[in-house]
Each structure stands twice: as C-alpha cells, then as structure tokens.
Amino acid sequence: MSVRHRSVVPLANAFLAGVLLTALVANRGALLTTATAHAGGVSPCYAPPPVTTPGAGTVPSHVINGVRTFYLTAAPITQTILDHVNGKTLRVKAWGYNGSTPGPTIIVKTGERVAIVVTNHLSEPTSVHWHGLTIPNSQDGVPGVGEPTPLIQPGQSYRYHFTIVDPAGTHMYHSHTNTTKQDNLGLEGAFIIEPRGCLSQRIDRDYALFLQSWAIPQAMPMMDAGLTKESPTNGVLKMDPVDNVTPGTFPENPDSGNFNFETINGRAMPSNYPLPVRLGERIRIRFMNISQFDHPIHMHGQYFQQVAVDGADLPLPITENTVDSVSGQTEDIEFIAHNPGIWPLHCHLPHHTTNNGSSGEGGMFTVVKYVS
Ligand SMILES: [Cu+2]
Predict the structure, then answer these.
(1) N or C terminus: which one in the chain shows less Cβ crowding within 10 Å?
(2) SS3 breakdown of the chain: % helix, strand, coil, rounded to 5?
C-alpha cells in the first residue's frame, strides 16, 4: 500500500478527529494515538504538526467576515548571511516581506476564503504571484498579462482575495514584477495548504526551506584559499569557511551574473539553521526554489522518500538520497529518523557549498541534527 500521508480521513471521522484535536491543541505535533483511533474501529487520525520555517516564521492571520486575512509588507531589508564567522559578518541589502527573506510562511486550509493585503514600501511598483495555486486570473499577480492584477505602486496596498480550491500541498509566493531584480533580491516565501481534516500518516516535524542564490560584490576567489601561507604546497588546509569572504554590508547585484553565495532561508553555512530531529520521528521537509539555479539537495546518513512535487502527491513515492530542487518547483521529502548523528543536508553543486570559493564548507548547507 502506498504511503498516502496527505490522505485526509473521511468526514465520518471528523467528530473523533475534532475531539482528539481539541485535547491536543497545546501540542499539535503530537501523535493522535493509533490505539485510541483503532479502538473505535476507524482509521488512524493524526494532527498536522506545525510548519517550521527557520529564520522566517509564519504570517499571523485573522478571520474577518469569514475571510482568513493576512498582511504582507514588501520593503528593503538587511539580511545577515554569515554571522560572526571567524570574526567576519556578511550582510546583503535585500528586499523582503515583513522584514525577512524568505518572507514568513502563509498557511491556509483547503476550502478557506483568504485575503492577502500587500503593502508596497519599495521604491518601485510590485505585485505578488501565488505560485501553483488555482485562483482567478485577476488575482494571479502578473500585471499586463491576461486579466491583469494591478501594479501596486509605492506607498499603496492591494487586497488579493481567492478561495483555496487545491488540496493540501506546498506552494510559494513571490514578486512577478521586474522579476530579475525583485525575485533575486529576495521577494519570496512559502504558501502551504494544510488539509481540512487530519492525516492518515503521522508526521512529527515539518520544515519549510527556501533555497536562494545571491550575487554579492566580493574580491575574486583565490583558488589556493586555505593553504597555509608558509608552505602553499604542503597540502595542509585550514578549512576556513570565510577565507575568501570580504566582510561588510553589500548590495545584491544579480545583473553581474556572479552568484557567489547560496543560502537556505537566508543563511549560509556555518551560520545555517540546523534541523533538530528525534530518533523514531517521521520528518517532512519542503523545498522551495525560485532562484537562478536548480539545486540537487543531498542528505547524508540515510535515504528519504520524495512524496510530492508542486504540492501534488506522487502516486508512488521515490526512494533516494538526492532530490533535484528545480527553480519554480516545490518538492516534499519524508523520512523516519533512524540513524543518530549530525548529518549534512546540502546542495551538491560544488560551487554552491562554498562562500565565494572559500576552503571550508559553506553556502547552501545545513544539518539534520539528532537531539535527545
Ligand atoms: Cu545549488
């Protein structure tokens, strides 16, 4: 039987689900015990765990006249990519939503009416595209194409509104105006549809990770970085993750084409956000990417299953240890944590695991960290 983790338990179980969900409201990630569910002769029913988006969080929402309403503000920000690494801090002048890049995650439920009020505090017009969602043409956030969504002028707001008709899954939001600038400067975030009922498959932790590429003015990399100065050919490496990094605050310059820093949720190794897991837990990781490149993400120490692409469940999950995160696409993976350690999870393009060609591990690189 295939793993249909998103299969929502039929409405016949909704009462039981509701009782259990209420009892466990303080711990949404908890297992709704299989024993309890089976005692009534019904299928297991599990609460979806909270989605964790390290460094970005989630957008608060309020239900106004039956419409779940979110507020996003697009504005210049200063994003810290490397934080006090061997005395060096690197920041980039980026654009973000609600103060971060990626912006905070929007979480909705299938069937909900939603509104997202977007305010433009940038120096130029913008718009937001709801990437992957089945919505009216007029709300697609692409001014000038099809039935146009208005451009949002500086200082102005626009209220996008639509009903969530798609099933549970992983999607994105991002600027669709002057995209080579606005997307590369960081105007992007996760848009996640949760099921209306409960899950037939237990999930203990749920991480949302946005993959990003940055073009930051720096000195050209030195290919002998890390070799000791005393004897450059003696084969001794210092393994310094920032030996080719000039610290400071710099503008993002995508037109240069020199994408020399790669991040996960705005941070490069070793200033990355580790992903805690516990032995025996079932982990979901959602990868999102609208960057200049595809990123083959590899996990050490164990296999995982790719269970969804673009928010749609795969009929048969694919067992693998590298998943290609394609620009414009989302991929969901799941695994049971069974091999304790601190395991690298990183892009496998060599240039994407270094900070501007430095000798130590850097860039699009984090770890799955077993905790007790
Ligand atoms: Cu990559």
Answers:
(1) N
(2) 10, 45, 50
Surface-to-core class of residue 271, CB atoms within 10 Å of its CB (0-12 exposed, 13-18 middle, 19+ buried): buried
Q: Quote the ligand 1 centre to 194 CA distance (angstroms).
A: 28
| Containing structural domain, residue 362 | 209-370
How far apart CA 79 and CA 275 sit, in angstroms, is: 20
| pLDDT-above-90 percentage for the chain | 78
The residues whose Cβ lies within 5 A of ligand 1, an ion, are 295, 347, 349, 352
Q: How far apart are CA 244 and CA 355, in angstroms?
A: 7
Assigned domain for 242 exists: yes
**CA of 256 relative to ligand 1 center, distance in Å:** 18
Is the separation of the CB atoms in 190 and 288 below 8 Å?
Answer: yes
Cα 324 to averaged position of ligand 1 atoms, centre (Å):
9
Same domain, 133 and 218: no
Q: How much is the pTM?
A: 0.87
* Ligand 1 midpoint to CA 264 (Å): 10
Same domain for 365 and 216: yes
Q: Do the beta carbons of residue 73 and residue 97 sit within 8 Å?
A: yes
Q: How many domains does the chain have?
A: 2
Q: Which of 198, 233, 248 is the last residue of a domain?
A: 198
Domain identity same for 170 and 247: no
CATH number at residue 363: 2.60.40.420
Please state the three-class secondary structure of 100-143 as a single string: ECCEEEEEEECCCEEEEEEEECCCCCECEEEECCCCCHHHCCCC
Q: Are 263 and 255 in contact (CB under 8 A)?
A: no
| Same structural domain, 228 and 177 | no
Q: pLDDT tens digits, residue range 321-372?
A: 999 999 999 999 999 999 999 999 999 999 999 999 999 999 999 999 999 9
Query: What distance in angstroms lies between residue 347's CA and the mean position of ligand 1's atoms?
Result: 5
d(CA 143, CA 127): 7
- The CA 286 to ligand 1 mean position distance, Å, reads 16
